[in-house]
Every structure is written in C-alpha cells, then in structure tokens.
Amino acid sequence: MSEITEVLVDEATLKARIKEMGEAITKDYEGKTLLLVGVLKGAVIFLSELAQRIKLPATFDFMAVSSYGSSTESSGVVRILKDLEESLEGRHVLIVEDIIDTGLTLDYLYRHLKSRHPASLNICTLLDKPSRRKVNVPVKDIGFEIPDRFVVGYGLDYNEMYRNLPYIAVVRP
Ligand code: IMP
Ligand code: MG
Questions:
Q1: How crowded is the C-beta side of 55, counted as CA atoms within 13 Å?
Q2: Whose CA is nearest to atom 5 of ligand 1?
Q3: Which residues are CB-neighbours of 2 under 8 A, at least 6 positions away?
Q4: Is residue 72 predicted with pLDDT exceeding 70?
Q5: pLDDT one-digit tens code per residue, 120-146
Q6: Are 155 and 43 in contact (CB under 8 A)?
Q7: Ligand 1 contacts CB of residue 74 (under 6 A)
C-alpha cells in the first residue's frame, strides 16, 4: 500500500507554468518546425499539454526506455524498449521528459539521439530534482525544481499507478 501525503504542485500552477514554457519554446524555435520526442510513459500528459501551448508547426514521436533498477532508483543502464519512428537527420528535436532525477536516463538518451545527426537537440523537463544529479545533462527548459521527494501524478507513477492525477503529489511507499 501507498498513500498520497501532500500536493506539491497543484493543477492551476502546472497549467500556468506549462503555458509559459510553451511560449518560451515558441520564441526559441521561431521559423522552425519542431519534432517533440516524448519519453513514454511519464512524459505523455506533460507533452500533450505543452504541445498545445507551442505555436509552431510540430510533429510528435515517442521512445520507451527502461532503466534497470528498483521502482524508485534508476541504475543508469538504459534499454530501448521502443525506438523512434522518424529519422532525426536535420530535424530540430526537443526531448520532452517528466522528471530528471540522477540524470542517468537522459544522459544516455541525449548522447544516443545526438548520434543521429539532428539539426539541433534540446531537453525540456517538467520537473527537476537537482539535489540528486549524478551526471550533468544540458537541459534547456525546466518547469519546476522540486526537493528530493518521490512524486507522482501528471504522468509520473509509483508502480504504474497515479499517472492520471491532475497534480503533482508526494507519495509515501
Ligand atoms: P534518472 O535516470 O535518475 O534521471 O531517472 C529518470 C526517471 O526515473 C524518470 O523519467 C522517471 O521515470 C523516474 N523517476 C525519477 N524520480 C521519480 C519520482 O519522483 N517519481 C516518479 N518517477 C521518478
Ligand atoms: Mg520517465
């Protein structure tokens, strides 16, 4: 059993910040066509909200990765479960993630996607736990910095549950 102990970011605050992020991305990529790469499954809800706030031509693609480890700790060994369907060659690619914790997953993904010769490659994350970082990853946009707590909701899960909460909450395993 587990329980929600505290709401960390409420729905209105999430929506307002994601709107700002979309506006910033719209400025950054003015005149370009974007390829948004969502990391399944956690980034799906963030990506769908963010994409609607980006006023540019854009396409979506998705990857699924699994990082070996327990349900709350990543190991840095990343396996690709589902690869992209589109070529990245010459594209402006923005990786959309739910949360950066140790950074190990994104460090791997960033280097892996970079080797496919995109015109540009950047990272956008809804949440960041900077205190837990083990490797430095180049993140362009961060929604919220959060403390070292295990959070769920808005796409994030604990044992696959709570992804559909419309806010970010702390869960006690
Ligand atoms: P990293 O490789 O340690 O940066 O871990 C990144 C992945 O671990 C994220 O994409 C999430 O799937 C998962 N993760 C890290 N922290 C949390 C959390 O607080 N709640 C839910 N999932 C998390
Ligand atoms: Mg994830």
A1: 5
A2: 101
A3: 158, 159, 161, 171, 172, 173
A4: no
A5: 999 999 999 999 899 999 999 999 999
A6: yes
A7: yes
Architecture per CATH, domain 11-148, reads as 3-Layer(aba) Sandwich (3.40)
The H or E element containing residue 22 is helix 11-28
Delimit the domains of the chain by residue range. Answer: 11-148
Between 44-52 and 11-28, two packed helices, what is the crossing angle to 10 degrees? 60
Identify the CA nearest to 93 among candidates 156, 37, 153.
Answer: 37
Q: Looking at per-residue confidence, does 6 or 77 come out higher?
A: 6
Determine the atom of ligand 1 nearest the C-alpha atom of 105.
2
pLDDT digits (tens, 9 = 90+) for 136-172: 999 999 999 999 999 999 999 999 999 999 999 999 8
Q: Is the CB of 105 under 6 A from ligand 1?
A: yes
